[in-house]
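step: validate -> pass
step: tokenize input -> pass
step: predict -> running
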Amino acid sequence: MTGRLAIGRLAEVTGVDPATLRTWESRYGVPEPERTPGGQRRYGPEQIEKVRAMKRLLDAGYRASEAARMVTSTWPGPDFGGLPASRDDVASLLTEGDFDALSLLDRLAGAMSVEDVVIDFVVPIMREVGERWARGQLSVAEEHAASALVGTWLGAQTRGLPPPLRPGLVATATPPGERHELGLQMISLFLRRQGVEVLHIGSDLPAEDLAALIGQKRPVVTCLSVSTEGATRELNETIAALRAARPGMSIGVGGPWFVEHPAPEGTVLLPNDIRSAAAHVLSLAG
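step: predict -> pass
step: emit ->
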């Protein structure tokens, strides 16, 4: 029990009074105590972080029940040594179009945060899928099957989240000729889990249609993703249409194409790392 805190000390280090902690514990299971041989409650380091996360969500306007659900459903467990699946397990099922891949991803999300599942599993798997397709080691059908299943799983993670509370809508889309949208879906999910309202419009959108919707919905930030040279041909036209439809809006661009190419003038280059990109968009949204 070394390093475990009594409830009074937990209250001191988190800034949450003991009575509130007891209420959270009895109603929502946050924090979750361990028991000494004498039956006294003690709280480990992971419970300190859960309480702090709960407090941040409440300060942001979430109800206690919503905050507790988010904390308990997304927090990594204390044991990281026995994850329920390997990357190879997930990758094989994804490329086979096997819906059991979704169950494995769900099981991983029960052992670690959704963000970590995306960063540590989904991103490297899909990068490898793309590279193997480019080398002719995977068929187009296998690549599409994996992408479709990942898209389905990402969408499922958004359902059940509390309503967005932060001001300012963020829109995500790809310009004409660009069909790869998984990166934007990941960013959208990360932002929604931070309380941001996100409108993910989709891929391969005609500039005039995208601009019309942006003018109607009036987001504070629109993010565009480009992975191939073909999609850059109409990118400037798309950006011009967006600026005309929504003057003063921030336009973020990202994707594999911009790893080696500059961003169009007047746009904001987003980091290639999904977590960092989401954080950057969050800062743009204010």
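step: describe -> Residues 74-81 have pLDDT under 50 and may be disordered.
step: cleanup -> pass
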